[in-house]
Design brief:
UDP-N-acetylmuramoyl-L-alanine:D-glutamate ligase; cell cycle; Rossmann fold; peptidoglycan synthesis; alpha/beta; Protein-Tyrosine Phosphatase, Chain A; six-stranded mixed β-sheet; Mpl; 3 domains; ATP-binding
């Protein structure tokens, strides 16, 4: 079968393309901009990529078109699919029909940490020789690909609450029918499709409804939004985490680089690993407990995590030049920014932290989180904010209320110039964006290397 994917370079759709290719289909795809890291992975798999959405890409007609949720009516390729009556579906629905039947699905949901937690869980199962399938919305460093079918019934999936397609406004995750479900956290996000937190809770409860009675739902205790959602009706076993939960982590190192996994005061395992930050400790505990549901002991899970290498674009150190480290991070929400910077501060102590931030997500561009952005950066020494040209609001108020020195930019060259001026030995530059940031990452590293010569 020839499957053509519209919006193929997104992390979800690109991973789906890997699975379709592994199933033996001929896979092609297009995107507005064909860009790495996903384009690199797809090209290595021999998947033909087309830049743009000219309807000619549908000649001759594919057997099926899978339409990504970033595309809407008015897109030339979408209009051609509808006009010609070509068979089409959404990515989540294609997975439900062709990949997930008969699988023990372990789904990782929540506002933050889905990619990292799903990567941890897949690696724990791999380490335990359970050869899981997985689909992860990012490029994990423990596997050569972001998705595979696997050799056993176990399948780990990053379960996103974003909508499925322009013709299916349900959250992606309602298609997955998990037996093991992690809900990491729950906050208001995706303001382009949700009007309030209650709308998000409704979608999460649809997900809870699909977990069988023999299934298990893992979530942090004393998070009101989650507990209210569970209270609407839950038919599955639940396991809670956190200080008031059934399972806890006791930090043996302040930065989270070593911690103990405990149940009711009894220590089950110690994790000693390369990650840091309380958010990653929380992610790890959820992954350990999800793996426990399919028979992996906390001791084996802890040993696996000691070899966990992280995920690209999640505090990925992309350069270390003369004691100046540059990190690429995907942070797209004030909470993600705050926890990431807090984790780095705990790790580096008094070392200088420069945060370079592009508020690029749809919700950020709408200004929904603007009142919380300044305080989110309290652990940085300097913050360089970029004003994307198509944002609906002015970031000047964020600068005005910043608890640390901050400056607003509309020019990337000026950001690079000032970042270089602020940098010093034992300094950490964290670039935060859920997009390409105009190539700023590579340009900054190039200039750092030149200055170091």
């Amino acid at each position: 079968m020839h499957i053509h994917i519209l919006g193929i370079c997104g992390t979800f759709m690109g991973s789906l393309a890997c699975l379709a290719k592994e199933l033996g289909h001929r896979v092609t795809g297009s995107d507005q901009n064909v860009y790495p890291p996903m384009s690199t992975q797809l090209e290595q798999l021999g998947i033909e990529l087309i830049s743009g959405y000219d309807p000619s890409q549908l000649d001759p007609a594919p057997d099926l078109v899978v339409i990504g949720n970033a595309l809407s009516r008015g897109n030339p390729a979408v209009e051609a699919v509808l006009e010609r009556g070509l068979p089409y579906t959404s990515g989540p629905e294609w997975l439900r029909q062709h990949v997930l039947p008969g699988k023990w699905v372990l789904a990782v949901s929540g506002t933050h940490g889905k990619t990292t937690t799903a990567s941890m869980l897949a690696w724990i199962l791999e380490y335990a020789q359970m050869s899981p399938g997985f689909l992860i919305g990012g490029v994990t460093q423990n596997f050569p690909v972001s998705a595979r079918l696997g050799d056993t019934p176990f399948f780990v999936i990053e379960a996103d609450e974003y909508d499925s397609a322009f013709f299916d406004k349900r959250s992606k995750f309602v298609h997955y029918q998990p037996r093991t479900l992690i809900i990491n956290n729950m906050e208001f996000d995706h303001a382009d499709i949700f009007d309030a937190l209650a709308d998000i809770q409704r979608q999460f409860h649809h997900l809870v409804r699909t977990v069988p009675a023999s299934g298990r739902i893992i979530y942090p205790a004393n998070v009101a939004a989650i507990e209210d959602t569970i209270a609407k009706g839950c038919w599955s076993e639940t396991v809670t985490t956190g200080e008031q939960g059934e399972w806890q982590c006791t930090n043996l190192q302040a930065d989270g680089s070593q911690f103990a996994v405990c149940q009711g005061g009894q220590q089950h395992a110690v994790v000693d690993w390369g990650l840091s930050g309380q958010h990653n400790v929380d992610n790890a505990l959820a992954a350990i407990l999800a793996a426990r549901h399919v028979g992996v002991t906390p001791e084996i899970a802890a040993a696996a995590l000691s070899e966990f290498k992280g995920v690209k674009r999640r505090m990925e150190c992309i350069a270390d030049t003369h004691s100046i480290k540059v990190y690429d991070d995907f942070a797209h929400h004030p909470t993600a920014i705050q926890t990431t910077l807090a984790g780095l501060r705990a790790k580096v102590g008094d070392g200088k932290i420069i945060a370079v931030i592009e508020p690029r997500s749809n919700t950020m561009r709408m200004g929904v989180h603007k009142d919380n952005l300044a305080a989110a950066c309290v652990d940085a020494d300097d913050v360089l904010w970029y004003q994307p040209p198509d944002t609906d609001w002015d970031l000047a108020d964020v600068i005005k209320h910043s608890p640390v020195p901050a400056k607003l930019y509309r020019d990337l060259n000026a950001i690079i110039h000032d970042a270089l001026a602020l940098a010093e030995a034992n300094c950490h530059i964290v670039i935060m964006s859920n997009g390409g940031f105009g190539g700023l990452h590579g340009r900054l590293v190039e200039q750092l290397n030149k200055h170091a010569l």
